[in-house]
Design a protein that fits this description.
This protein has 406 residues and is an alpha/beta fold. It folds into two domains: 3-203, Rossmann fold, CATH 3.40.50; 212-405, P-loop containing nucleotide triphosphate hydrolases (Rossmann fold). It is 34% helix and 16% strand. Helix 5 links the parallel strand 3 and strand 4 (121-124). The protein binds adenosine monophosphate (AMP). Residues 21, 23-25, 28, 47-53, 303, 331-332 line the site of adenosine monophosphate.
């Protein structure tokens, strides 16, 4: 299918062209016509599928054709708010539409000033939006289209009360679009209360894209840093994102890598000032640094392109977080690689690596992504999507890893 077949205006088509998009993705093909028709829409799709442009194009077209006066996009994090507003600004540029973003972590005065100018689309995180509403700088009654982006994540990180309150203050006659990777109880509650007669679109299976090659190294916790060092050595010059669970862990690991003379390392964690975070993201994007140690703050939504390698230094807390982490690589069909450092002497996490796959694993872990078996004690490394030739492999006594290559 071509974008022109979606019935878009010439100006939007030009903007899409300027973004370099030649063909709509599945979510765009399915969602845009429904948004243009004014449907309340629930879209279950993962990040990395082109969902931002799906609702971005839809709302730009609606505003340009005067079917919508003003649109509000709610996002869970400030990084996502910045990204989404930049993408929508680009998509609406040829129509002369203006996008404004308000989010925590930046001085409020800068945003108060921005709000004084005329804008058509507001992208906001829930907390800062409510703050602005209390100051009477934003009036929720002026928006007749709302997008809840990454609704599941928004609820997961504790914005349920804010989101429900914001929805209750919007005009009842409006269009509501909800995008979410999962549709769980909290999301269903929003749908039933605030999105009557909504249509439902599902895009792809909830799984890791097939172009991602996922491997596991089972090892002892104390061996993680040296193993990571070796991996980085083998992947010199490769854009690598290393995920950890805690901010403290991120800081310590970055220091350890620097002490080991690993070059081009940066970090991203929630305690950093917004301007430092932005700087690090842009240095990672432009290749000034090519190793980024991060908490899950980098897992959601960030359009960090061309990440070739994801290392899960710590396992993710749950399946969704794992999917979001690995979604940073293999985006839009590009090839990607994921290495999970699975420590056998840490508390077990639920098994969800490559959640779309089935089968049994050996050792102490549960269902394998590959259907093969994995060792429990050594640091055997194997591609999880291989046919599983590692059946019954035992850990090496020395605890040294037995590296297996594809
Ligand atoms: P998202 O799902 O919004 O996180 O988008 C993932 C990435 O896909 C972003 O970097 C977009 O720039 C890119 N993208 C969106 N739509 C298209 C398209 N039709 N063709 C190619 N890339 C796209």
């Amino acid at each position: 299918m071509k974008f022109i077949e979606l019935g878009l205006s010439g100006k939007t088509l030009k903007a899409i062209d300027a973004c370099g998009y030649t063909q709509p993705t599945e979510v765009q093909e399915k969602a845009i016509p429904k948004i243009l028709a004014g449907a309340n829409l629930v879209v279950r799709s993962q990040t990395g599928t082109g969902k931002t442009a799906a609702f971005g194009i839809g709302l730009v077209e609606r505003i340009a054709s005067k079917k919508t006066s003003k649109a509000l996009v709610l996002t869970p994090t400030r990084e996502l708010a910045m990204q989404v507003s930049a993408e929508i600004q680009e998509l609406g540029a040829k129509h002369g539409l203006k996008t404004c973003a308000v989010y925590g972590g930046q001085k409020i005065n800068i945003q108060l000033k921005a709000l004084e100018k005329k804008y058509n689309i507001l992208v906001a995180t829930p907390g800062r939006l409510q703050d602005m509403c209390k100051r009477r700088k934003i009036h929720l009654s002026s928006f007749n289209l709302i997008v809840l982006d990454e609704a599941d994540h928004m609820l997961d990180i504790g914005f349920q009360k804010e989101v429900l309150e914001i929805l209750s203050h919007l005009p009842p006659k409006r269009v509501t679009l909800l995008f979410s990777a999962t549709v769980d109880k909290g999301v269903k509650n929003i749908i039933s209360r605030y999105m009557p007669n909504s249509e439902f679109i599902e895009v792809g299976e909830q799984k890791i894209v097939s172009s991602i090659n996922e491997e596991h190294i089972e090892l002892s916790h104390v061996d993680k840093v040296s193993t990571l060092h070796r991996i980085l050595d083998e992947h010199r010059g490769v854009k690598t994102l290393i995920f950890m669970r805690t901010k403290r862990g991120v800081m310590k690991l970055k220091e350890k890598l620097i002490r080991r003379k690993v070059e081009g390392v940066g970090m991203l964690q929630g305690d950093m000032e917004q301007c430092r975070r932005n700087k690090v993201i842009s240095r990672f994007k432009d290749g000034t640094i090519n190793i980024l140690v991060a908490t899950n703050v980098a897992a959601r939504g960030l359009h960090i392109e061309n990440v070739d390698l994801i290392v899960n230094f710590d396992e993710a807390e749950n399946k969704e977080t794992h999917l979001h982490r690995v979604g940073r690589t293999g985006r839009m069909g590009a090839e990607g690689k994921v290495i999970n450092l699975v420590s056998h002497d840490e508390p077990r996490k639920p098994n969800y690596h490559g959640g779309n796959r089935q089968g049994k694993r050996g050792g102490r872990r549960g269902p394998s992504p590959s259907g093969g078996r994995s060792s429990s004690g050594g640091r055997n490394r194997r591609p999880s999507n291989s046919s599983g030739s590692s059946k019954g492999r035992r850990p090496s006594r020395s605890g040294r890893p037995k590296r297996r290559r594809r």
